[in-house]
Write a structure and sequence with these properties.
The protein is an alpha+beta fold and 282 residues long. It has two domains: 8-28 and 140-277; 33-137, Immunoglobulin-like, CATH 2.60.40.10. Helix content is 40%, strand content 26%. Helix 1 packs across helix 2 (142-167) and helix 3 packs antiparallel against helix 4 (213-230). The longest helix has 28 residues, at 173-200. The protein is elongated.
């Protein structure tokens, strides 16, 4: 085993961690949907929220300046309930912005909405008429949320650094593997469930109790690193494999199939469970 260390690997690990964190942020279903379209010779820029605070109205604002332009917002609860019509509300215009508020929902409740643009040339839709889904959650104490995020970020940084060190036969990769395991467990399996309890009222909804992908992938990543730590004396490739598997798992968008309110039963379940119990709307 080589004892030489490569300080520049920390910089590479940081860059890789930042790229993965940005991907997680942008690919998740709670990140605002951004875009722009042109109607009646005017550009409409939108940032459609996909996350809100429980029981508080969700404000949707659209930037647009054009004479004779009107916008209407359609919304209803999600998943769709048989017989429930779209609520249609005009968006008020003020200083170049159109605005409307969607009624707040309980924790894990979801709404789906879309925006109709009525221009002199005829009506059309933002985002091609594809509805946006927004989920509501309870507020989480800032110190807790920041601690969770920083620990998960540190876990990814250590994982990349351990994997790179093992790949280059550094002498410190076993110690980095142990640190990766410890930080991942604390950030993902201790702080993570506490954050979820504040946000949605349940500590754990992943495997084996439910289908929450975020909980499940965090558990699997921790198990990868536990295996790498226990098998470290058998070879460095276990740590390299744990790094590769972690990246593959984290490429799954954050918050997919997460907690969701079943409006039929009033219970908070995972999205997969709610879909299975809700009649399909044709």
């Amino acid at each position: 085993m080589h004892k030489k260390t490569h300080p520049w690997l920390w910089l590479l690990a940081f860059v890789l961690t930042l790229l993965l964190a940005v991907y997680q942020r942008l690919s998740g279903p709670t990140y605002p949907l951004r875009g722009s379209q042109e109607f009646a010779g005017a550009e409409i820029r939108y940032r459609l929220p996909r996350s809100g605070t429980s029981h508080e109205p969700l404000t949707v604002r659209i930037a647009a300046r054009a004479a004779g332009l009107r916008l209407r917002l359609y919304h209803r609860r999600f998943p769709l309930i048989a017989g429930e019509p779209w609520a249609v509300e005009p968006m008020s215009e003020k200083q170049g912005f159109f605005e409307c508020r969607i009624p707040g929902q309980p924790a894990a409740g979801k709404v789906t909405y879309k925006i109709e643009v009525i221009a002199p040339g005829g009506p059309s839709w933002l985002n091609g008429g594809r509805p946006v889904v927004a989920r509501f959650k309870n507020e989480v104490p800032s110190w807790l949320l920041i601690s969770h995020v920083l620990l998960m970020f540190a876990g990814m940084l250590l994982a990349f650094r351990a994997g790179l060190g093992a790949l280059l036969r550094e002498g410190n990769w076993p110690r980095l593997t142990a640190w990766t395991l410890g930080v991942t467990v604390v950030g993902g399996l201790i702080f993570g469930p506490i954050v979820q309890k504040f946000a949605f009222g349940a500590y754990w909804t992943g495997f084996p109790l439910g289908g929450d992908l975020t909980d499940s992938k965090t558990l699997f990543v921790a198990l990868f690193w536990l295996a790498a730590h226990l098998l470290r004396k058998k070879g460095r490739w276990w740590t390299v494999a744990a790094t590769v598997l972690m990246v593959a798992v984290y490429l799954i968008p954050h918050s997919m199939l997460g907690s969701e309110l079943n409006y039929q039963t009033g219970k908070i379940e995972t999205a997969k469970e709610v879909r299975g119990s809700t009649p399909k709307i044709k």
